[in-house]
Design a protein that fits this description.
The structure is a single chain. With 414 residues, the chain is α/β, with parallel strands linked by helices. The protein has 13 helices and 14 strands. Helix 5 crosses helix 7. The radius of gyration is 20 Å and the shape is globular. It starts with 10 loop residues before the first helix and ends with a helix. The N terminus is likely disordered.
């Protein structure tokens, strides 16, 4: 591999981080040894908030770095020029001071190294803009992609490497995405055999619990393509990944149904891997075709930064977040990243600006206190079950089981 000269992290990548919070025992398939992985995380932690949010966490990561941000032009005479070395050193040092491991979401997006399909409409998760979908990495740039992966693993000391987010919305070809993952997996494991390679971040958009009339529309216009993408990807990637990830941004009731479908799809492809949620909203989902008129009005008020609407949203977050986490663990999800560390002053979906556990002035919301209490209660759990609405039992290998009463946690947090 060529010597690295410099590196630059985009402003978006410096804002969005993922922060793991508690530990449980999980064996990562494909890795060289069993790891003690975290079961709860916070998605989105910049360096300003890292010390505060780290008070409930044990691992961190960078989200939203693209290949063309890292390497704006193709190598010349075999020499790479990666940007942002000073920022990378500062970020790595900050994580090490907080005793954090780094999780990086690296997107293959690159204008000089990819082939695009103009007939496929791809939506950017950063700004919602529509562009051509990715078809594949050009053959002459496959080794350059592997060099870029090697660089970020070694320079940032990456522990968890996720290849893209909502791949089904960015890629026109699942086989092209599978090839990018296989190449990244090979390079990452050569750079560090213990790095954990995550894939997907697939988003089913609430399909499984949608009313029958909407399911029919979803199925013909959207879901058939998404599900076909996942199936074809799993067949083509040939097991060259460690963890399958999906997004859980709608209701808690969707989670077990999505996990069931993912497991069945992996079984068909003769693949068995842990399932993680790499993106879960901490507050209620108020938009989309299933939203009520009252929810839409609430979302519009959040967009206007109406104080009463914000207070109401903050009051709802604590119960919503802990309930979704409990349902995920009952379904067998081994790790969850919940959004996000702090409120955002930007984003094209206004509701997302209020997902923070901490306000922009660094004061903690009720959801922060609820999660901190919840994390302490379930640390090291091995199994979870639902007893009744709002009540869950968590089992431990070397301790007595506990009952989680969400109502009491929320009452204490408020």
């Amino acid at each position: 591999m060529n010597r690295i000269t410099s590196m630059r992290l985009s402003s978006f990548s410096c804002v969005l981080l993922c922060l793991s919070i508690i530990a449980c025992d999980t064996a990562i398939a494909g890795n060289t040894k069993a790891l003690s992985e975290s079961c709860l995380g916070v998605d989105g932690a910049n360096l300003r908030y890292l010390p505060k949010v780290s008070s409930i966490g044990d691992a961190s990561g960078v989200n939203g770095l693209t290949w063309d941000t890292l390497e704006p032009r193709a190598p010349r005479a075999g020499q790479h020029v990666y940007t942002g070395a000073n920022q990378a050193r500062r970020m790595r040092a900050a994580f090490e001071r907080e005793d954090r491991s780094i999780q990086l979401n690296l997107s293959v997006l690159n204008q000089w190294a990819l082939e695009f399909d103009p007939d496929f409409q791809a939506r950017s998760p950063q700004d919602g803009k529509i562009g051509a979908g990715i078809k594949r990495i050009k053959p002459e740039h496959r080794t350059n992609w592997q060099d870029a992966v090697t660089h970020v693993v070694q320079t940032l000391g990456v522990r968890y490497l996720q290849i893209g987010s909502e791949a089904e919305n960015a890629w026109a070809s699942p086989e092209g995405y599978a090839e990018a993952v296989r190449l990244a997996y090979e390079a990452a494991k050569l750079a560090d055999p213990e790095v954990v390679v995550m894939v997907g971040g697939f988003n089913f958009g609430g399909y499984f619990t949608a009313p029958e009339s909407l399911q029919k529309r979803y199925k013909t216009e959207l879901i058939d393509r998404k599900m076909d993408f996942v199936r074809r990807f799993l067949a083509a990637v040939e097991g060259n990944f460690d963890v399958f990830c999906f997004h859980a941004n709608r209701s808690a009731a969707d989670i077990p149904l999505e996990v069931k479908w993912i497991r069945e799809s992996m079984k068909t492809a003769a693949v068995s891997r842990p399932i993680w949620i790499d993106d879960m909203t901490s507050g209620p989902w108020l938009t989309g075709p299933t939203a009520t008129q009252a929810e839409r009005e609430w979302a519009e008020a959040l967009g206007r930064r109406d104080p009463a609407a914000i207070r109401r949203y903050e009051a709802a977050q604590a119960e919503y977040a802990v309930t979704k986490l409990c349902e995920a663990y009952v379904a067998g999800v081994e790790k969850v990243f919940i959004s996000s560390d702090t409120d955002w002053s930007f984003y094209y979906i206004p509701m997302w600006r209020h997902q923070g556990l901490v306000r922009e002035d660094q004061t903690a919301k009720p959801v922060f206190r609820a999660l901190k209490s919840f994390a302490g209660m379930i640390e090291g759990f091995s199994y979870a079950e639902r007893l009744a609405p709002g009540r869950y039992r968590f089992q431990f290998k070397r301790a007595a089981p506990i009952t989680v009463d969400i109502g009491q946690i929320v009452k204490d947090a408020l």
